[in-house]
Automatic annotation (TrEMBL):
Its main location: other. Component of the exocyst complex involved in the docking of exocytic vesicles with fusion sites on the plasma membrane. GO terms for molecular function: SNARE binding. It comes from the Eukaryota. It comes from Bos indicus x Bos taurus (Hybrid cattle). The exocyst complex is composed of EXOC1, EXOC2, EXOC3, EXOC4, EXOC5, EXOC6, EXOC7 and EXOC8. Interacts with EXOC3L1. Interacts with BIRC6/bruce. Interacts with MYRIP. Interacts with SLC6A9. This is Exocyst complex component 3. Keywords: Acetylation, Cell projection, Cytoplasm, Exocytosis, Golgi apparatus, Protein transport, Signal, Transport. One of its GO terms (cellular component) is membrane.
Length: 725
């Protein structure tokens, strides 16, 4: 726009020459300068327009030439193929030396492998594979569908794969013995790891190229790192399974030995892996963590295999003790040399809770059967001892005993110690089981003791040491009671005692019953020997001067010399029972109506004799009970009281005397009174009738602590009416 105005002004000035001349020279110079620039610009625009036209014409000519040359380009395919072949030939020429030297390199590589020069062997193997892979890649680029040429190349380098496999075998052999190799020749192990690392890098590079070209050389990827861990896993499994050197048939302790070998091997291996092996592997391999996981899995699998076998009770205990306790103890995974890499709190259980529960159930079932069989066998062995002709052994205090309590509780102790190694809960269950089976066993023990007594009574000459072994049976009851208390105190926690007491039948009563029957059998033996002499009491022979009571006292004392081998709690009761029984037998003789006194003199002599003999018995039993610090002679007072009734000279006072007797001994019956009055021989029928009827009207009441003595005395079948005649 400005340019047009300037041109217009110029034309005006040119037409008006006079006005132009009249302008100041400075203005004229400025306008002239502008006009010169405009002329120059117009000239350049004109030149540019011409250049554009020339370029446009040239492009048109090029387009025309291109359209005419399309067919010519398609006819140059042969040239293109020649270029590709040239490229391949160039690669072949470049690898020509290697191609011709392939057989030699193969031999050298084979020799290096055989001599253990693994790094150098791998370097040559890499060269072979590189030449092969390069040629195959060029062939693939030229013609991926040409399998013949590919096969030709692969065939020519066929030994390469064999070398790779042979080298791999050597690597795996080293890895299989890695825990030994790392101690003797760690450099060899490092070489193996370096080779595996090289192969891993080659694998990654080839897989990256595959994404771009689709070409993968034969035998790739090798995945030697993955195979390495597989080999290590298999080696660990084989090592653990291979530790079983024995079977149950060859060694009853096979499982204990097997588990101990596993413990030692695993601990040693992990310590070596932590301190030495980890230094031979790159940190990102986490080789110790991997081996720890592998060992744990292999151990878990082995423990499950063992748990599935038909294990005996002791073998189940050995297995569970090892799994639940030994594995996490300082003897194995809790060892200080494995810390802090191994945290036992983070280790998974080797056996599941279901498997452990099943094993415990099997163990308890088997243990129950075993305990029953053991107890039966122990009792049979003890019964055989009862028939011996030699006295039983005595303990340190001189009391007779058999080995039965020691055998039984040694067995219980062993099983409880074993159960305690597994868990407190199992220990409590085993204790309850032992006590329950002990209760059943005592019932059989009681029956066998009764059979032993019955057999002896059929022939009192056999067994020869009947008394001594029956004493031992009684003493065993006290030993059993003490052992039960000791066992509960040792193996039972206070908080669990109440529950066990509820589930455990009381055995004290059973043991006391066995001891009581045993003591009764021994006293029966005494009084069977006294029977002849007891039958002399209250007879004419007795009245005239029999020594029956002397013999009775000597016999009783002689027996109680043997009974001194009975432990005190039972001997004390036995002396009291013998005292009561002796007095009772004496009174039974009174009630037998073996004699009827004919005069006051006879009654006096008989009564005085009864008093003397009561004192004899009193002295005897005081002597026998002297070590117990208690008076046990009140029974003899009964004989003295009866003697007073016999000795009474005034028949009119009989009622009063008999009343006094009845008040002191409330269990005396009218037939006893009738027999006593009949023995006096001077009471009239009316007097007897009056006394008995009066006493029947107001029977005396027994005090709570009164021990009956007349209750078991049976008067011969002679009714009261006949006694009154």
């Amino acid at each position: 726009m400005h340019l047009l105005l300037l041109l217009h002004a110029l034309s005006v000035l040119t037409d008006c020459a006079a006005p132009w001349a009249a302008l100041p020279w400075t203005l004229r110079a400025a306008i002239q300068s502008q006009l010169d620039g405009v002329r120059t610009g117009l000239s350049q625009l004109h030149n540019a327009l011409n250049d554009v036209k020339d370029i446009q014409q040239s492009l048109a000519d090029v387009s025309k030439d291109w359209r005419q040359s399309i067919n010519t380009i398609e006819s140059l395919k042969d040239v293109k193929d020649a270029v590709v072949r040239h490229s391949q030939l160039a690669a072949a020429v470049e690898n020509l030396k290697n191609i011709f030297s392939v057989p030699e390199i193969v031999r050298e590589t084979q020799d290096l492998i055989e001599h253990g020069e693994l790094l150098q062997a791998h370097r040559k193997l890499m060269d072979l594979e590189c030449s092969r892979d390069g040629l195959m890649y060029e062939q693939y680029r030229m013609d991926s569908g040409n399998t013949r040429d590919m096969t030709l190349i692969h065939s020519y380098f066929g030994s390469t794969q064999g070398l790779s496999d042979e080298l791999a075998k050597q690597l795996w052999m080293v890895l299989q013995r890695s825990l030994v190799t790392v101690r003797r020749d760690p450099t060899l192990l490092v070489s193996v790891v370096r080779i595996i690392e090289r192969e891993e890098k080659i694998d990654r590079r080839i897989l990256d190229r595959k994404k771009q070209t689709g070409f993968v050389p034969p035998g790739r990827p090798k995945n030697w790192k993955e195979k390495m861990f597989t080999i290590l896993d298999r080696t660990v499994t084989t090592r653990i399974e291979g530790t079983q050197a024995d079977t149950r048939e060859s060694d009853r302790m096979w499982l204990v030995r097997h588990l101990e070998i596993i413990r030692k091997y695993v601990l040693d291996d992990l310590i070596v892996a932590k301190n030495l092996l980890a230094q031979c592997f790159p940190p990102h391999y986490e080789i110790f963590r991997s081996l720890l996981r592998t060992y744990h899995q292999a151990l878990s699998a082995r423990m499950q295999d063992l748990a599935a076998e038909d294990l005996e009770a002791n073998e189940i205990v050995s297995l569970l003790t090892w799994v639940l306790n030994t594995y996490t103890s300082v003897e194995m995974m809790g060892n200080a040399e494995l810390a802090p890499e191994v945290d036992v709190a983070l280790l998974e259980p080797l056996l599941s809770a279901d498997v452990v529960s099943a094993l415990l159930d099997t163990y308890m079932s088997t243990l129950t059967s075993n305990i029953i069989a053991w107890l039966r066998k122990a009792l049979e062995t003890d019964k055989k001892d009862w028939m011996k002709e030699t006295e039983p052994e005595a303990d340190q205090d001189g009391y007779y005993q058999t080995t039965l309590p020691a055998i039984v509780f040694q067995m219980f102790e062993q099983n409880l110690q074993v159960a305690a190694q597994i868990s407190e809960d199992l220990k409590t269950k085993v204790l309850v089981l032992c006590l329950q089976q002990m209760n059943s066993f005592l019932s059989r023990y009681k029956e066998e003791a009764q059979l032993y007594r019955d057999e002896h009574l059929r022939d009192r000459q056999h067994p020869h040491c009947y008394v001594q072994y029956m004493v031992a049976v009684v003493n065993n009851c006290q030993t059993f009671k003490e052992s039960i208390v000791s066992l509960k105190r040792k193996y039972l926690k206070h908080e669990a005692e109440e529950g066990v007491s509820l589930s455990q039948p009381s055995m004290d009563g059973v043991l006391d019953a066995i001891a009581k029957e045993g003591c009764g059998s021994l006293l029966e033996e005494v009084f069977l020997d006294l029977e002849q002499h007891l039958n002399e009491l209250m007879t004419k022979k007795w009245l005239l001067g029999s020594n029956a009571v002397d013999i009775i006292c000597v016999t009783v004392e002689d027996y109680f010399n043997d009974f001194a081998k009975i432990k005190k709690p039972y001997r004390k009761r036995m002396i009291a029972e013998a005292h009561r029984r002796a007095v009772q037998e004496y009174l039974r003789a009174v009630m037998q109506k073996r004699i009827s006194f004919r005069s006051a003199e006879e009654r006096k002599d008989g009564a005085e004799r009864m008093v003397r003999e009561a004192e004899q018995l009193r002295f005897l039993f005081r002597k026998l009970a002297s070590g117990f610090g208690e008076e046990m002679d009140s029974y003899c007072d009964t004989i003295v009281a009866v003697a007073e009734v016999i000795k009474l000279t005034d028949p009119s006072l009989l009622y009063l005397e008999v009343s006094t007797l009845v008040s002191k001994y409330p269990d005396i019956r009218d037939d006893h009174i009738g027999a006593l009055l009949a023995m006096r021989g001077d009471a009239s029928r009316d007097m007897k009738q009056t006394i008995i009827e009066t006493l029947e009207q107001g029977p005396a009441q027994a005090s709570p602590d009164y021990v009956p003595i007349f209750k078991d005395i049976v008067v011969p079948s002679l009714n009261v009416a006949k006694l009154l005649k």
